[in-house]
């Protein structure tokens, strides 16, 4: 919603704790023309994974968020894989502060 694109969601595992987000449009791609020579391993879009993971932590959900496919790397789609790990204990977080 905040990025101006609505992804489709696919879930292929039976335990329903893993799914993929496939956005129709990746807003970060508009700002990257070509990866620098010798830096083909850079993933500018990893920023999106951090944003999603941080937002989930704010609502007390721990998740592993990674890029599975990336149009900047030549893939046909952009796909973000998410694995739900656990619910964070709100009381423990309050005690740390």
Structure description:
The longest helix has 13 residues, at 46-58. This protein has 2 helices and 4 strands. 21% of the residues lie in helices and 29% in strands. It has a single domain (7-27, 43-96), classed as 2-Layer Sandwich (Muramoyl-pentapeptide Carboxypeptidase, domain 2). Strands 1-2-4-3 form a 4-stranded antiparallel beta sheet. The mean pLDDT is 81. It has helices at 46-58, 90-96, and strands spanning 7-10, 18-23, 61-69, 79-87.
Structural key phrases:
NO_sig/Golgi_transp_ligand-bd, transport, Muramoyl-pentapeptide Carboxypeptidase, domain 2, 97 residues, 29% strand, 4-stranded antiparallel sheet, alpha+beta
Provide the spatial order of strands within the biggest beta sheet: 1-2-4-3
Largest sheet: 4 strands, antiparallel
Q: What is the fourth-level CATH superfamily?
A: Trafficking protein particle complex subunit 3
CATH class membership: Alpha Beta
Subcellular location: Endoplasmic reticulum; Golgi apparatus, cis-Golgi network
Main location: endoplasmic reticulum
Organism: Tursiops truncatus (Atlantic bottle-nosed dolphin)
Protein name: Trafficking protein particle complex subunit 3-like protein
